[in-house]
């Protein structure tokens, strides 16, 4: 169990990637795990668009200034959500699938970073050819890590945990 907890705490956001291909088999394994993420009423409102094409990745990398890792990584995975399948919880459901995707990649030795995409829905959908009504909840840069960032500081539990009622801080 302790190994599993250490594994979860060792995942880092990777923004620099080696110039090395990620095989279709590894991508398939990662997406196979992602589809097991929990969703409300098992709605599974997600779809994935795997982008290897350099020109498309370049366009995605230009959606905002923090999207540059998409051009550096050999693969981008867009996590699309269909709000009609899960109207009340599609964002949470697809966030769960995104985390499963990132943890599966980490387990296989790959690196990822979650690129915020909710302010660029229309533009992203146009670039990847997604139908109207799909929401790109995340763009994931995926590849072999070319960096090993240290853990960034975390808030103490006493700052963020309340017992029974808000304001009753954990000691």
From TrEMBL:
The keyword Zinc does not apply. SUPFAM superfamilies: FMN-dependent nitroreductase-like. Residues 9-61, 70-144 form the Nitroreductase domain. It comes from the Archaea. GO terms for molecular function: oxidoreductase activity. Keywords: Flavoprotein, FMN, Oxidoreductase. This is Nitroreductase family protein.
